# Entry
Amino acid sequence: MSTELHLVIGNKAYSSWSMRPWIAMTANGLKFRETVICLGQDNTASEIKKYSASGKVPYLIHGDIRVWDSLAIIEYLAEAFYDKPWWPTDPQARAVARAISAEMHSGFQGLRQNMPMNVRRSHPGKGAVPEALADIARISAIWTECRQRFGAKGPYLFGTFCNADAMYAPVVTRFKTYGVALDPVCRAYADAMLDHPALKQWYADAAKESWVVEKYELA
Ligand SMILES: N[C@@H](CCC(=O)N[C@@H](CS)C(=O)NCC(=O)O)C(=O)O
# Structure
């Protein structure tokens, strides 16, 4: 399919939801145009509304097709570019990959609220309240189970990189920012993710951004 892909995202220092499809698309080698809107500005809402009636990013434009919401976008891409390895091929692994992606998408408020994404900063120990620690324990259990059951063929949750890794990529960055201690299995997984070229590119792009939004820096 040669129709242009255009992904509208929030700025890379802070926009955890945007990171997910961007990482998935980059990891799968898709060429796409990106429009970056800085979060937390007076004109953020109006800029996003130029594209998305939902008032949120990420938002994907593909020819006549419009898709919003991170999980819907990566599911759309898995259909539109079905020759790429978006999800594991084994039905059991694919079911678990989708389940943990949905769990990420709908949960972990304790982690999200107390350890907001900021890939440019280091705040070891900050935000380690019981609600965040409970989410970290559940995520560690998910990662450990996936690595042990499905991870034989590579360093990612299901061996080779898939959409579930993209869904957990912002969590990996939060664990780095907030210095979360991990057991050896989870540490090895997080390190493999941080070493992935797509994540490295996201970090490099975020470092070049000039926007500094006080409310996200103080969080
Ligand atoms: N469930 C949505 C959540 C999207 C979301 O909350 N995006 C944030 C940025 S990470 C946003 O657009 N916020 C609007 C704003 O800050 O004005 C998804 O998965 O895409």
DSSP finds ten helices and four strands in the chain.
